[in-house]
Amino acid sequence: MKITKRLAAVALFICISLSALTGLITPANAANVDTAEFNSKLASFKAEKYAHNSIYQNNPSLTGGYECFGYANELAIYIWDSYPTKSMSAAGVNDGWSITYGGAAVDNLCVGDVVRYWYHSIFITGIDGDTIYYCHANSPAGTNRVTYDNSVSRSNLKKRVSGRLLSEGTDKSGWVAHYMDSAISATTCEHEYSNKGICALCGEAYALNASADTFSATTLKQINLKSSPYAAQTTVRTLKSGMSVSIVASALNHYGNKWYKTSAGDWLYSSDVAKQKPKLPQAPSGLSAKQDKSDTASISWNAVNGVAYYEVQYRRSGINWKADSDYKTKTATSYISTGLADYDSYDYRVRAVNAAGYSPWSEFTYTKPMKKECEHRFDDKGVCSFCGKSYSLTLTNEAFQAKILKDINLKTLPYAAQTTTRRLTKDTVVTIVASAVNHYDNKWYKTADGDWLYSEDVAAVCQHQFKSYSEEKHPHYIYRICGLCGFKETTEDTTYRSECTTCNPPAIPTKPPAPEVVAPSAPAYQMWKNSDSRWSSVSLGGGATIGGSGGLVVSLAIAMADCGATSESYTPADLVTSLKAVGGLTSSGSLVWDKVSSAVPGFEEQTNVNMKSSSLSIEQKVNLIRQAVDKGYQVIVQIPDSSPWGLRYVAVDRVENGTVYMFDPNGSGTNLFATYGNYPNVAVPYAY
After folding, report:
1. In whole angstroms, how far apart are CA 654 and each of 218, 523, 556, 638?
2. If residue 662 lies in a helix (H) or strand (E), which one and from where to where?
3. pLDDT at 383
4. What would the pLDDT profile of 36-87 be if each residue is shown by its tens digit?
């Protein structure tokens, strides 16, 4: 039963207005009932006559006392001492009652009214805005079962009453019967709430004061979730122990017990769950960059659940990371990065932050598209890494025969890294038709078949013009010399004569061999390699190891030992331990450059030497490195990731006669530019 002071007042206003409009007079036997009395009478009827879910027994002594119609009439008599009509079609109306046909009657509905529609009759017990509460004797499975606290929307009931009565043999619509003195006076209920939070007097639910309370929780045991915050309420679902549940609000029930409301709309007792500690956020995914304007790019990534804000850093490739000041909102998943130079590559990295800490960095590289004539950077195949064009060769006509000096592979273009067309063995003669110099300043020859070979792998075959000679002291030794190339050839007349002291000189006594001079062995650290089994499996972080990614660490260890900053017994594995102790390695195993001096005090990084310009020749790069070495610095050189070998680092040994000698932990080469061509692009000096 749902009647409040406000609802009773509404019912009173409606019913008084209806009486005034119709001009009907209250009969002498009318019952003047207030809210408390109505509730009391309804409760007594349930106790004495028909309890909830009981079977209604037809009443033959009451005209119209059958099934739902009979139940509604009996309840009306119990409440009002009268009932509306003996006929389901309301053909005859009893004193004190008014009958209104059609759905419009529902607009003026009152508590205590009897409603007839289709095959069915109901008795109105409460009104709450658009919600109508009623009791009736329904007939599921052939029974007339009595139920209370049923509800229907006003609009739905209006549709039902608007329809034609189906059981009375009439074309009339449904109707609402109203007792003329059934205005229920307003009283304030002194609520007595049950263990389900429902008032036993008026049927009103306890008014919860719910507040927002958002967090994730874990169940401490198997629990039943309820439709409202009471243990006796209907179970909506069951959760096992250890399951995660999302909390959106909390409230105290009338017992003062705190309950939580879930995102699914049901309730659980607060003591049955524990708040989950926040987890580290996932690393952002879907990082991308798209050109925005001539010098800007739009940087974006996918949102991460449960994040408080993001951090963004960038750098020009090979330079130290720094925060991107263009990213200002800290919670957005996109922004515009400005001041980007043509052709330069920029590294960006993003991580998510919440109360638990930081996610791993997510990194990607953006190369700014060209907006003007390309400043080419050609790779070892002569192809520009920016625009994809091949190096423009200038061909010079040649015409001669050449002999192969060793077994070689001929190429499609004048570069050793290009595709092999065929293989020629030593002493094979080929026809040369042209020559060209590639971007490394190496001269190559083009053959009559259209493929290329390196100029130093062949020698021209001369069309000899001989002149004959003989030795005055050796008259039987006759030879001839080419006047074009100087080639010397003996003739058929030349013979060996044993009596000739020139052909067969006497033996000359030999001196004993000089004692062998053993050069001192090189220090062990100069031979350190990434693959050394003593440290190759040492972890740098994030799955990276010295053996797989430790060229920079090994090069630093060599440089430190070479200048005396550490001893030879201080291995790359020891350096990794020192770096980790001062935060010198990131979670992904990358070096934090400014932590090196903290790991090995006194070994201080100096200003980097930028050799990235494609216009720099090898000779100019050698000079830049020599200047750093002449200052007494230890120098680490970077070979970029775009090279055929990927990202590598080496330590400089010395610069001598225009050659940079190196300690290479990646291989056996000692000549920097002979090994890596013009790829080295950054030199990092260290002072000790």
Report:
1. 64, 15, 15, 16
2. strand 659-663
3. 92
4. 788 889 999 999 999 998 998 888 777 777 888 889 999 999 998 888 988 8
Residue type at position 102 = G
Q: Which helix (H) or strand (E) is 349 found in, with range?
A: strand 345-354
Phi/psi region, residue 141 (left: phi>0; alpha: psi -120 to 50; beta: rest), is: left
Q: Report yes or no: 635 and 652 within 8 Å, Cβ to Cβ.
A: yes
Rounded distance between C-alpha atoms, residue 522 and residue 564, angstroms:
15
Cβ contact 372:342 at 8 Å: yes
Indicate the burial class of 448 (C-beta count within 10 angstroms; 0-12, 13-18, 19 or more).
exposed
DSSP category for residue 146: E
Q: Is 504 exposed, middle or buried (0-12, 13-18, 19+ CB in 10 A)?
A: exposed
> Does residue 197 contact residue 228 with C-beta atoms inside 8 Å?
yes
Residue 591 DSSP class: B
User: With contact defined as beta carbons under 8 Å apart, do 507 and 484 qualify?
Assistant: no
23 to 96, 182, 434, 558: CA distances (angstroms): 12, 15, 122, 112
CA 261 to chain centre: 30
The predicted pLDDT at position 5 comes to 32
CB 194 within 8 Å of CB 91: no
Six token digits for residue 319: 């330079």
Length of the chain counted residue by residue: 688
One-letter amino acid identity for 3?
Answer: I
- Judged by DSSP in three states, 138 sits in strand
Of 17-31, 61-75, 106-120, 158-172, the range with the lowest mean pLDDT is 17-31
Give the pLDDT confidence score for residue 225 in this predicted structure.
95
Q: What is the pLDDT of residues 502-522, one digit of tens each?
A: 677 777 666 666 666 555 677
Longest dimension (CA), the chain: 172
| All residues at 6 or more sequence positions from 315 whose CB lies less than 8 Å from its CB, including other chains | 321, 322, 346, 347
Q: Which residue has the tokens 């003593």?
A: 534
Q: Provide the whole-model pTM.
A: 0.31
Cβ atoms of 593 and 319 within 8 Å: the answer is no
DSSP category for residue 676: H
Over range 130-148, report the average pLDDT. Answer: 85
Cα 44-48-54 angle, rounded to 5 deg = 110
What's the CA gap between 348 and 366, in Å, rounded? Answer: 8
